[in-house]
Amino acid sequence: MAQETWNDYKQKKHSRPLPLKGIRVLEVCTLILGPVGPGYAAAMGAEVIKCEIPPNGDTCRDMTPFGYLFRGYGPVFVHNNVNKYWIGLDLHKTEGQEVFRELAAKSDVIEENLRPGVMESWNVGYRQIKEINPGIIYISKNGFGQWGQYAEENRPSNDGASQAFSGYAWMSSFSDQQPLKSRIYICDDYGGLMGELAVLAALHYRERTGKGQYIELSQSENIMRAMSWVWPYQQITGKGAMPAGNRDVSICPADTFCCADDTFVAIAAPALEEFRGLCTAMGKPELAEDPRFKDHLTRLKEENATAILQIIAAWVRTKKPEEVEALAEQYAFAASRVYTVKDVMEDRHFQERGFITEIDDPVIGQYYDYEFPVMMSRTSPRVKWSVRPVGLDNEYVMVHHLGKSKDEIERLYESGALGKWGDVPGRRPPSGWDGKAGVILARDGEEKE
Amino acid sequence: MEMEQPWSDWVRERDDPRIVNTRPEALDDITVLDLSNKSYAGCYCSSLLAEFGAEVLRVEPPEGDFLRTCTPYGMLYKGEGLNYLTEGRNKFHITLDLAKPEGREILKGLVTQADVLIETYRPGVMDEWGCGYEQLRKINPRLIFASISTYGQFGPMSRSRMPDYDNVAQARSGIQSGTGEVMPEGKGYEDCPWAIPTKSGPWIAWSVAGTFMAVDILAALHWRGMTGEGQALDVATTEAYARFDDYPPVWYQGSGVVAGRFGSLDVAGWLYCFAPTKDGAVFLGGLRLQMWQAFADMLGKWDEWGAENWTNLTVFTEEEQQLKWAPLVFEETRKYTNEELVAMSIEYAKKGRLAPITPVVAPVCSPEEAMKDANWADRGMFTPVQDPVYGELIVAQAQHKMTESPVRTKWVCRPVGYDNEHIYLKYLGWGPSKLKELKRKGII
Predict the structure, then answer these.
(1) Which B-chain residues 89-118 have CB contacts (< 8 A) with chain A?
(2) Domain span at B422
(3) What is the DSSP annotation of B40-68?
């Protein structure tokens, strides 16, 4: 049955409609927390117009792993800015603000991640925009929200600060070791996702009532929301929650173990039948009857958990990771090698689902990246195109959305309200660009060949 | 007039969590059936919808969901596991044995009245029960059928017999392999069992999967509003979390480099690391050249480090540069306490040579410190919920703030089957005698 629903999903997804068709989003965002949310919306079919201050635009454009640019752009930037339209609009300039307000009057959503009050100082804050578009859904995302001590001190913030402030990094380390920063920008990525949830809920509310609203999201608060037991535990016990390395203190057994070849495998087998399966796989079925391990709550107790995890660790140390995975499949408990990015990219399962997806981009060329990770049977979200040089879509947006004449557009360029890329890595087109690829409408106002 | 009021005051007057109960709820026209089984992802997903006012019917087997026993160190509070306690919020808890054919017929009576169904069984189980998407759409074509599993509903691994757990999904995502301390030279696993691939402590793969699903349920509702069509949604916990691995896929295919561990430095950013201090550690951030210069200046190293002549931040991101500069930075930060460094950065924003540009300096807090921080308390993160069953309880809430239809936590949880009477009467018209009979048969 599921086969019927999902048959040829990868092949068919590009010929299906998109769920957020008809929703227009204006983005004034930089780095990751801001842009990822509109990126998700764009993968679901919203029309996202990304406004950058020319000539440098988004700071993320040249954010690079060890100095490496992918065809001229930072890989983080490429990953998070799909399916967008790109305008270079200087909001410091009155004329730029006016263009923004014209676009805002025709938009459903505005997303920004500047410090509190900056958008208002540019005459494009929520209070100003709702006067021309009362139905607007306007979201601000940052470190500390719009009010409270830290916001009022105007502190800058970013993902690492939130990992630090929230206790998330502290809870993600080994006890007696230094707190550890996650390699991913978890508070950015997750903040952006939760922001989009609020935007879509607000959209639902608007569809029912016609009313728009303002939303604020603090990425520190948001990651705290995902830390579950930590808060009631501290309240009830009066003690601080403690980190436990790779061990999951709420599920037993669940940990990462070192294999015979010094690689690692994660295992979880808490439910009775799963635990029995693991014990049988280890050749020790009697452990499932041991009073220390007889049920989950008993097994979770510190001394019992330590005992069973030591037994499993000693067993795994004699095994290859693929042997553990095969036994998990046979005995129906959970196990996986600790995958690298290479393993994920080359995994046949992820490829056949289209999670590893191919983008054939006119500007930066063909490449693979991770697909938007929700498959929808009727309206399939997907990555269609990649990033653009600053301001590449100026003409398209000015003509198609605002009906500006050639003269009006020229005046906007002369005032500096409109602009394009500077000759700087991450901003300019990739080397070898022919001046046409990816251009929807050329600057001289004529359709390109 | 309106513009005369300071922005922060204006917003606070309208979105302070203290006034949420005077505001309408965004999703109070939506009914959700949550059949989550052994899955925090599913429960978290339905919590996010329930916080917006959706009527969530949380369906558990008569003995309760196994997730109720997944609690730190086996600790129970008033009979409840702590993780479940935080994600029972605003839901009606009913029991129904789906393993029995009669239970599944009862489910169908609820499905015809629901907008959304969330399920986390192994792919194929719902089909075998006659309750898969293709079967249920026949009785409710508007149904949004949301499935969360380790590997998703299709693809070679979808038929795996393995259950879905957060730590295994974190391992499969590729992210754990790139997080952790670097093994010191000449040492091995037995010497330093902490210098290995390290997962995040919280159930983040489950939370992320549940949130992606909640986002897409709302997108599917939008589509249904336009067309009347329901559909099936498929989230794999492994993929949902992997999507957050921002740069490694593109970096790997472009250069062949497999992103590895780099401790609490950052492969893709400088200045962007944890740094030791006199009394702990701070996060330091300066992803623009001027912020890195401001940091050097703040420490009195402007001349010695030659900050004036720096022209390009990208070169500092290179591995050998990071390994050269990090010890120099740490030598300085060790001279100060966390509080001193934070104060220096705030002061620099006012009076520094590059003001208002200043580096990001944030103390690395324990969750105990975070919960005592007056800033978050003031913003309503930890306001205790007055729960009719469990009493006064602190859970994280108010993760976003909205002026018209904000989230709220009305109650934190309910015991197994607590709402059977109310919900079965409301949806199926069954009074006490019918419920008694079903209970006797072990169906509810």
Answers:
(1) none
(2) 2-244+378-440
(3) HHHHHHHHHHHHTT-EEEEEE-TT--GGG
